[in-house]
């Protein structure tokens, strides 16, 4: 297959080997296209061929730029390749360019001739249109547009310009009215639905602005009401806190005074406890002395009781002796009577002994009464002494307990004094905190009052705005 004067067509297999070519030597030698014409630029085109793609490109073949087209052969693993050198098309291109230039020159000459004729007709209309467009660019929307009665494009252009000016004026007037309402706080006005074309975006933007302003102002209104309510509540709470702080301060002052009185009383109690302790120590010493004296008296009483028992025993012995002496005197009298005259002297002696024994018996009787009475008194004294000793023991134990209690009272009084002193310090701290709370409540009340005033001002601002009804 021959393409043009120097073009060529050939077939490649999947490895890039030429299997069909008018240059049979390529077929016989099984030349590979990569080996014949391989280069970085050409390999991209060759790779596309072997991927069985359909396309076109350029490649350097035999040191000349060739146009290359390729497409796979259906039902095979072959690719059909057609290439033609760039030089085969340059002659046709030159001829074509010369013809085109000649035609262009002829058309330009005809256009110049025709436009010269037409320019005279439309120059006046264009002058009017351009002048009006210049005034429109300067913001003049009220001056009417002069319509060119030429029956051509100039008339169409002026009519379109007049319509454009009227529409722009209408849109600007509508926008101005809406903005006027907004500037006076009337957000309830609706935007006229008379915009067309791209001007609809202006109406939609203005509607979005109006809706956003309504939503914002409504939120501000709700926030103002909430701030007003919260400020009132904060002001009320601050007043309550202030009143409570003042009452707390008064209560703490009274409590501080009571604590001072308690401290004074505790000091007196502490002094009294010290005196009681001193008295208890003195009483303890006296009780110890009394106990020692009581122990000594009990020992003396026991000695007296023992001596009395010995006296009773001796008295009994004397009574026995007296009885024996009386019997002896009786026997002596009997024997003296038997002796007669010789026994008269002995009888007198026996009689005297009898009288002495009788006197002794009488004395013993009196002594026994006195000893019995003394013994009874000693017994009573012993019992009384024993009871007194038991009482002294109880007094001793009570005195010891009283001494211990007085020590405890002294310790407790000191502890109470320290505790009350600490309570007094804590009360002073609480007084300081109460004072700080009072000052803070005053500041909070002032802040709440300012917030309430600002909320009222904000509420007045919102009330001056007319909003749409909620949808």
Task: Supply database-style keywords.
471 residues, 5-stranded antiparallel sheet, 5 strands, 7% strand, alpha+beta
Describe the structure.
This protein has 471 residues and is an alpha+beta fold. Helix content is 77%, strand content 7%. The protein contains 7 helices and 5 strands. It has helices at 24-28, 33-37, 40-50, 87-137, 153-183, 200-339, 344-463, and strands at 8-12, 18-21, 55-61, 64-72, 79-85. Strands 2-1-5-4-3 form a 5-stranded antiparallel β-sheet. A hairpin with a 6-residue loop joins strand 4 and strand 5. The two termini are 80 Å apart. The mean pLDDT is 76.
- What share of residues are in beta strands? 5-15%
User: Can you list the strand order of the major beta sheet?
Assistant: 2-1-5-4-3
pLDDT average, as an integer? 76
Count of helical regions: 7
Nutshell version of this structure?
With 471 residues, the chain is α+β, with helices and mostly antiparallel strands. The chain contains 7 helices and 5 strands; from the N terminus they run E-E-H-H-H-E-E-E-H-H-H-H. A 5-stranded antiparallel sheet has the order 2-1-5-4-3.
Ordered list of secondary-structure elements with their pairings:
Layout: E1 8-12, E2 18-21, H1 24-28, H2 33-37, H3 40-50, E3 55-61, E4 64-72, E5 79-85, H4 87-137, H5 153-183, H6 200-339, H7 344-463
Helix pairs in contact: 4-5, 6-7
